[in-house]
Amino acid sequence: MKNPPANCARCPYKISDRLCREEQGKGPDSCPTANLQELTGQSLDEYRTHGDIHEFARQASIQESSGYGNRDQGYEQVRPVKSRIEEIIEFAERMKYRRLGLAFCIGLRKEAQAVEKLIGSRGFEMVTVLCKVGRSSKEIIGLDRADQIDSSSDEAMCNPIMQAMVLNREKTEFNILLGLCVGHDSLFFKYSEALCTVLAVKDRLLGHNPLAAVYTLDTYYRSLK
Ligand code: SF4
């Protein structure tokens, strides 16, 4: 009988008892560590056979562990020591990148200016591109005026495909997303030739902190459940 699809989010076991942490650990019927061993092998082949991916993964994991202080005092004492923007800069330095892309939302143009200045001051060449680049009408993707934010005039669409193409043409080595909308970010990921990271996601309501709604699901955001 076919196993149910992976659902690690509902794994009933303590972290320290899980099969994905311990060889003798436990997993539910849906456990992908137990059920999908061929994918473990296939995924590891990707690291083994692609030198660039191997190095990217290696540096990402070094970056991860370097984000904790007090490691010499045992696991219970570790604490976070780096903000995400520091991590992005450090990671780009570890990878020896010189040319970085920044794809940002018009609503975060002030933040983009600050980020460009900061990262640029660390010796990187920055190529930055705003979501409305190309000034193409939303009519092109089938929207009428009623679907626009402001129906009083023709509105420029966000064009994440062009954002990616601009950065691809400039041969950026690593692209940073800043505040792209849900779905626009997806298209950017699909069309970007360079690997990407996200400095911040768009959440207009919650100051670009979507987890605020998740943290308050039992209280102020209970109506979502
Ligand atoms: S991989 Fe298996 S053991 Fe690990 S969280 Fe997912 S279901 Fe649980």
Quickly describe the structure.
This protein has 8 helices and 6 strands, in the order αααββαβαβαβαβα.
Task: Indicate the topology.
Layout (H helix, E strand, L loop, with lengths): L31 H4 L1 H13 L1 H16 L1 E2 L9 E2 L3 H11 L4 E6 L4 H13 L3 E6 L29 H10 L4 E5 L5 H8 L4 E5 L10 H5 L10
Parallel strand pairs: 3-4, 3-5, 5-6
Antiparallel strand pairs: 1-2
Helix pairs in contact: 2-3, 6-7
Iron/sulfur cluster (SF4) binds next to α1.
Could you explain how this protein is built, in words?
This protein is an alpha/beta fold. It has two domains: 37-82, no CATH class; 84-225, Rossmann fold, CATH 3.40.50.11840. Helices cover 36% and strands 12% of the residues. The protein has helices spanning 32-35, 37-49, 51-66, 84-94, 109-121, 160-169, 184-191, 211-215, and strands at residues 68-69, 79-80, 99-104, 125-130, 174-178, 196-200. The strands form two sheets. A four-stranded parallel beta sheet has the order 4-3-5-6, with helices on both faces. A two-stranded antiparallel sheet has the order 1-2. β5, α7 (184-191) and β6 form a beta-alpha-beta unit. α2 (37-49) crosses α3 and α6 (160-169) runs parallel beside α7. The protein is globular. The chain starts with 31 loop residues before the first helix and ends in a 10-residue tail after the last helix. The model has no long low-confidence stretch (mean pLDDT 97). The structure holds iron/sulfur cluster. Residues 8, 11, 18-20, 27-28, 31-33 line the site of iron/sulfur cluster (SF4).
